Amino acid sequence: MEDLIAALPDGRVLTDPDVTESYARDRTFVPPGRPLGVVLAESRDEVVTTMRWATEHRVPVVPRGAGTGLAGGATATDGCLILSLARMTRIRELSPQDEIAVAEPGVITADLDRAAREHGLMYAPDPSSYEVSTIGGNLATNAGGLRCVKYGVTRDSTLGLEVVLADGRIINTGRRTVKGVTGYDLTGLFVGSEGTLGVITAATLRLRRAPAELATVAAEFTSLRDAASAVSAIIAAGCNPSLLELMDRTTLEAIDEWKNIGLEPGTRAMLIAQSEGSADQMAKLCEAASFVAVSSSPEEADELIGLRRLAYQAKERLGQCLVEDVCVPRSVLPDMISTIEDVAARHGVKIATVAHAGDGNTHPVFIFERGLAEPPPEVWAAADEVFRAALALGGTLTGEHGVGVIKRRWLGLETGPVVTEIHQGIKQVFDPLNILNPGKAI
Amino acid sequence: MEDLIAALPDGRVLTDPDVTESYARDRTFVPPGRPLGVVLAESRDEVVTTMRWATEHRVPVVPRGAGTGLAGGATATDGCLILSLARMTRIRELSPQDEIAVAEPGVITADLDRAAREHGLMYAPDPSSYEVSTIGGNLATNAGGLRCVKYGVTRDSTLGLEVVLADGRIINTGRRTVKGVTGYDLTGLFVGSEGTLGVITAATLRLRRAPAELATVAAEFTSLRDAASAVSAIIAAGCNPSLLELMDRTTLEAIDEWKNIGLEPGTRAMLIAQSEGSADQMAKLCEAASFVAVSSSPEEADELIGLRRLAYQAKERLGQCLVEDVCVPRSVLPDMISTIEDVAARHGVKIATVAHAGDGNTHPVFIFERGLAEPPPEVWAAADEVFRAALALGGTLTGEHGVGVIKRRWLGLETGPVVTEIHQGIKQVFDPLNILNPGKAI
After folding, report:
1. What SS3 class is residue A127?
2. pLDDT tens for each residue of B401-420
3. 3 state SS of A417
4. I need a labelling partner for B318 at 20 to 30 A (CA). Which of A93, A400, B143, B186 fits?
5. Which one of B169, B189, B396 has the shortest CB-CB distance to A184?
6. Size of interface A-B (CB pairs under 8 A)
7. Which residue range(s) make up the domain with A372?
8. Which of B170, B361, B429 sits opposite A426 (nearest CB)?
9. Is residue B432 part of a domain?
10. pLDDT tens-digit series, residues B119-130
């Protein structure tokens, strides 16, 4: 460690265990190991220095943004070095003409969005955590969000990357153009690789024209399945929503207890939908709703969507959370929702569900007692059933949170042994010493 | 070869050199080698049989669709086996609810689009060749097209793949859902890999809602640079065109000679633009035009766009063609266009340019004498300058055609030595015996 401390500017390396501990976790219960130290990198060259040192000394490196991950991907392991990119906060370039930005990994997602808005543009991907999460973390997990239903996920907005490899070499992948097919798609490969293939030190990101006017629908339902069916109907009718979110009763109660939203006793679910132009057709397709309101006020919309973004924090007030992330084809969303309700009842587990419903991406949050080191057996049993049901419905284990450590146990069910072998082979190409976030993602 | 003939159903293997020769080329001048034979595979299992045999006997395999490639990617090499997927033409599934189709590689691109239209949907990627090119070829090159400016390229429409590996093992990558982050993005890696990593035997493709009404603008300019500047203005104003094409005088003359379109003597360039709803703002931004017409008639639009799609065939009437494919950031399209004009003049080379201008993707077509085995030195010199200019402008060597064999000479200029090493490492993971389309793409 002395070599590393000497090689970097003063103040970049933290080794006091009381301090480093606060960098060792993400937002999950996953118990961290004890790191050797934390590097607070401020530039690409400091990342290079760090990775060269790590390669020389065979020290595992856990890259990290804001630590808002929900799969354990940024959890420290014993004897690792934590490499925080949170101080690399420069937006190196923002070109309104070409509708691109070049951002460093520590830029807060919403800050990039705000910078783009000054030019009538937006950065579309918006995970619920986007006021605190970083571009680097979003790239690591290929983060989704509320606007993905129309604009796609982080990978869809990523044109090129600057990456420091495990041995400290620098590569540039991709391009600044909207199209390009030179060589294999390394950009897409790094996005979603959860820090196991390289350390991203800058990303060329696509911006999009910000929509001028959005109409918002809020609809309450006395049955969760009815709400899910309305989602399927809205998609099937081709309404092209720019946001389509679902919250179940347990979620609404958690928000109500905290923010007092005046939840009606019979309400079992709420849908929030948004689209450019008129939202009348979507409102009409919520025919089973007990209450429907359409608004074109941006303030009302922000308030409503703000409540949705608080859902996870509201649930954390109820206990510890295992936040899950299954995604199914949109036509079978009602079946997935029914299965989750059924699993909760049979296992006696409290599950609060929110969904990026327009994507078929459901977040069942399994709530368990505070103080427990990890979820109790009935929660794992319930989660196992939910995962298997999602796969049986043609879905996937994780729509946007990543595999991290939490879902590695189930990974083989989705990918199979040959793909597992290919994953390991690719990992070996980029990181032959296995020092980049070992034990995660694959 | 006897083993292979015995292992496959009757009629699947062609060995007569007079017959196999017609499968040995793509649409380029690249001189083919002499193949051992051609397999006309009709199913995934026949592909498996073929690849097992190729692995056992260390025979290079050149996968092939309709042979409309423009980079030499499907050119036969001496002693190779050509594996045609053109007979695998089943659309295995088309789900209007989930807006996906599962198509085999031999499906003609426009046929898939037509099948989707029956449900109010479309398959968006539409290379100019889409009435004859196949989904498999489109996937191999990550093909673009006219509608990409709004809907993205082939990779953006690909959710999952069924792939036969070099040794005959089968994997499924990706998903049926619109989101998913389980494991590395192998789907994106196979798309655009030009048959060097595996043989795609089915693809789960995203369909999109077909637009209800499109308005079309046609504008003529007395200067090519003015037309390119109008493109930049249209993009910068956020018009969100669903098509934005540019043709230069040489292209228009070639079409005029063939189809007699009544080309005005002073016209140096034509823009065709389309958007949902109104096209008035785009028409207004063509302020430097000598003639502008706006139409909402689908028949007129089809006729106009049909002429654009004929551009390449029209140029083939003038001589042999080296069709290039540089893509630059959209703000510098006028500079790229001026450079191409300047290079043509200085080298005394006839270059006819069309562009998917809304993407900054330019196709300068270098026309040279029929009968020559390959482009003469001045054509290569001119092309070299165009490639280097595109890179200097922040662009890429190939927007949508792929590297094939033609652009391998320049590849290192764009990717650099470390990326080249990574490409080779990835190739080794998938194809350790180097039997899949060796000598292409990377």
Report:
1. coil
2. 999 999 999 999 999 999 99
3. helix
4. B143
5. B189
6. 236
7. 214-392
8. B429
9. no
10. 999 999 999 999
